[in-house]
Amino acid sequence: MDREETAAAPLGDAGGLDTYRLDRMTWRDVDRATGSTSTLLVPVGATEQHGHHLPLGVDTLMPEAIAERIAERVPALVAPSIPYGVSSHHTFKPGTFTVGSETFRSYVRDVAASAADWGIESVLLLNGHYLAQDPELEVVVRDLRIDHDLDAFHVPLVNVFSDAAARVRDSTTTFHASEFETSLMLALYPDLVRMDEAEAVEPPADSLPLTAYDALGDNRVGWALSADDMAALTHTGNLGDPTTATREKGEALAAEAVDNVVELVRALEAGERNR
Ligand SMILES: [Zn+2]
Q1: Distance from Cα 224 to the centre of ligand 1, integer Å
Q2: Ligand 1 center to residue 109 CA distance, Å?
Q3: Model-level pTM?
Q4: What confidence tens digit (pLDDT) does each residue in 1-51 have?
Q5: Which H or E element spans position 188?
Q6: How many CA atoms lie within 13 A of 117 on its CB side?
Q7: Ligand 1 mean position, distance from CA 180 (Å)
Q8: How far is the CA of 142 from the centre of ligand 1 (A)?
């Protein structure tokens, strides 16, 4: 089968853009779709404070929109998102939900493992709450591979847009609700961003040795922030300078994330067909 031809063909017969979204499909749609793809994209997010200028759902909204863009380019199903994550360090502001590390791991693992029963062979966990819940999702991926025979991948968004991020970046620190997330939101959900309320908050220059307050930072030792730490570091809730964000930067980040994951899905689908 010609790969390019397959990649360009939308799933299902309805022809709409939503034929890959499981929450809008019937079980018979899914049954048909798994004849054309064995890949499931699971947006994994959080509901937590993102400063004065961004909504609580940023970490879920970003991977959701990126998953949809991926599924418009390559055959893949998009699962309903996981909207609650490990956010204990953000509970110093209202509206934040958090679940324990073990609860989160079990829940995401069970959700993803369900798909193995109906023809899914590859699961990509698109992590919009990157850095904070990377450890949990690395363990989930290992469990899915070992215990459920799924080709599972942890895809932190920051890792798949890191080249574009290094290229477009203007701010010194971009850690939470700052240049990258605000730019992505300006590209994906402009109506939800209040740029007039965005404010730069810089963490102390003398951060702990071997650690960095930066999404692209090279942390050489593992560490985490508590809610008290965050409350002491930022009065708005963001860390970094969101005023440097633009829609164009966000488009560049989203485009690179989509291109990279599309490439991975194509490789997985091609490999599975040749098996
Ligand atoms: Zn976030």
Answers
A1: 15
A2: 21
A3: 0.92
A4: 444 444 444 544 433 334 899 999 999 999 999 999 999 999 999 999 999
A5: helix 179-188
A6: 6
A7: 9
A8: 24
Q: How far is ligand 1, taken at its centre, from the CA of residue 129, in Å?
A: 5
CA of 35 to the centre of ligand 1 (A): 35
- CA 145 / ligand 1 centre spacing (Å): 27
Instruction: State in Å: Cα 59 to ligand 1 middle.
Output: 5
- Each residue's pLDDT tens digit, 193-249: 999 999 999 998 888 889 999 999 888 998 999 999 999 999 999 999 999 999 999
Q: Ligand 1 centroid vs 156 CA: distance in angstroms?
A: 11
Torsion of CA 18, 105, 156, 263, to 10 degrees: -60
CATH 3.40.50.10310 correct for 3-273: yes
Backbone angles phi, psi at 166, to 5 degrees: -65, -35
Q: By three-state DSSP, how is residue 186 classified? A: helix
Q: How far apart are CA 235 and CA 48, in angstroms?
A: 15
| Cβ(30)–Cβ(66) below 8 Å | no
Q: Is 117 exposed, middle or buried (0-12, 13-18, 19+ CB in 10 A)?
A: exposed
